[in-house]
Amino acid sequence: MMIPHSRPAISEEDISNVVNNLRSGLVAYGDEVARFEQDLSEYVGVVGGIATNSGTNALFLALKALEVGCGDEIIIPSYVCVSVLHAIKYTGASPILVDIEPASYNIDPRSIAERITNSTRAIVVPHLFGAAADLDGLSRFNVPIIEDCAQAIGAEYKGGKLGSYGLLSTFSFKATKLMTTGHGGMVVTNSRKMLRKLRELSKYDQLDKYLLSYNYRLTDFQAAMGRSQLKRLGDFIALRRQIAKTYSEVFRAMGYPVQHPAGSVFFRYVVEVDHCEAYLKSMKSHGISCEKPVYKPLHRYLDQRDNFPNTERAMRRAVSIPIYPSLSDDEVAYICSAIERVWGSDTTREKR
């Protein structure tokens, strides 16, 4: 039996809430979605948001609210999920790729300084693997920041929730994320002007005059799931942090100096090794599915020859070990024993 790399944590209460909504017959966009939007906005600490059918479309709507289009440039890290690239391409804007910081894997402000131009309309800032990016360092560019919190809902930066710092912020509720609605997402903002634009972009029927808008809304039965999951998010994060602590104790006992950003909610537990592929194969032989945390950097998709040394290092060396609330104690213990066998057998590794 293979322990999967990711697995949602679905409770009987989640199921009951969805079933109750289905029985009501009010399953499209309605009051339950509105309550979910309010609940998450209050949790993050912003004035409001729009729930969407995916995190990708949440980011697309954020860009459209900024009136991004052809001729505009959007700065993003190369080391990120390809869905960020999709959202930018949908608008017709040009993605400008930059490198990451080696320790946090987050976007590097120093790399941005070399690429910013008069055509830069926004910086998309993924908080990768559950830890906050350097928002202070990024704010000095005086360019709108869109926080991508797909992997970091619940994490904080200087006492505030991630998602409350950017002009706009997006979330993903895909099955593999920190909380889930199956598929789904949300874009939130603390700007009433931006919120009004988001609502205009999302209202696709019963308009007094024609406005180009998008049928991207979440459904009520998904929102019922989201509201239930949001109530348990604090417990999810606590469990992730406890599992991460357990893994780290095992690595340190073997003399492997793992370091993780303070305050991480541990969407991923990432370690670096020489010969990444060999470790993935070895863990799989023990019945544990580990993965590269980013499948392929964006500069490789776009065949860009620019220098992204930290991104390339992460691609060569980063391994993501299963970490999620639905792991049983026995599964965590088994993963720890496999870590001891696989990592403990390598005396030539480069220690990070």
Summarize, please.
The protein has helices at 12-24, 31-44, 55-65, 82-91, 109-113, 135-139, 192-202, 220-231, 233-253, 276-285, 298-301, 309-317, 329-344; strands at residues 48-52, 73-77, 94-98, 120-126, 145-148, 156-157, 160-161, 168-172, 185-189, 269-272, 318-321. By secondary structure, the protein is an alpha/beta fold.
Give your account of this protein's structure:
The chain has 352 residues and is α/β, with parallel strands linked by helices. The chain has two domains: 12-231, Aspartate Aminotransferase, domain 2 (3-Layer(aba) Sandwich); 233-344, Aspartate Aminotransferase, domain 1, CATH 3.90.1150. The chain has helices spanning 12-24, 31-44, 55-65, 82-91, 109-113, 135-139, 192-202, 220-231, 233-253, 276-285, 298-301, 309-317, 329-344; strands at residues 48-52, 73-77, 94-98, 120-126, 145-148, 156-157, 160-161, 168-172, 185-189, 269-272, 318-321. The chain has a seven-stranded mixed sheet with strand order 1-9-8-5-4-2-3, with helices on both faces. It has a two-stranded antiparallel sheet with strand order 6-7. It has a two-stranded antiparallel sheet with strand order 10-11. Strand 4, helix 6 (135-139) and strand 5 (145-148) form a beta-alpha-beta unit. Helix 1 packs antiparallel against helix 8 (220-231) and helix 2 runs parallel beside helix 8. The longest helix has 21 residues, at 233-253. The protein is globular and about 70 Å long. The two termini are 32 Å apart.
